[in-house]
C-alpha cells in the first residue's frame, strides 16, 4: 500500500551545478546554516514543507519556469538567503541560491 502524497518524505536533488556553486560559495556560517536546512528538509514530509513557517515555501510567479517544469518555488535556506527549486515527484530539485532576495524573484 502506498502512502498518501502528504505523508511522502522529501527527497533532495542537490546535483544542479549552479546550486552546488552557490552553496560552496557561501560564507562558512551561511553554508552551515544552509546544510542544516537541507538536513531538516530531508526529514520532512511534503505536507510539513508546505506548512513550515521557517522555510516559507512560496511559488515564484514573476519567473516563467523552464519547459517541462510546472512552477518554480523559493524557500528560506538561511536567515538571509532563499533558494530556488521545483518539485518533481518526491524530489525537491534545488537550482540556485541567488545572492539577494530580489534576484530570487527575477527582479533587478
TrEMBL record:
Domain of life: Bacteria
Protein name as annotated: Uncharacterized protein
Organism whose genome encodes this protein: Pollutimonas bauzanensis
Amino acid at each position: 500500500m502506498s502512502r498518501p502524497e502528504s505523508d511522502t518524505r522529501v527527497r533532495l536533488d542537490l546535483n544542479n551545478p549552479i546550486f552546488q556553486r552557490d552553496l560552496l560559495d557561501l560564507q562558512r556560517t551561511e553554508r552551515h546554516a544552509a546544510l542544516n536546512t537541507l538536513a531538516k528538509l530531508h526529514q520532512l514530509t511534503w505536507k510539513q514543507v508546505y506548512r513550515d513557517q521557517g522555510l516559507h515555501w512560496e511559488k515564484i510567479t514573476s519567473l516563467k519556469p523552464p519547459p517541462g517544469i510546472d512552477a518554480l518555488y523559493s524557500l528560506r535556506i538561511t536567515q538571509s538567503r532563499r533558494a530556488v527549486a521545483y518539485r518533481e515527484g518526491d524530489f525537491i530539485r534545488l537550482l540556485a541560491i541567488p545572492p539577494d532576495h530580489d534576484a530570487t524573484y527575477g527582479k533587478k
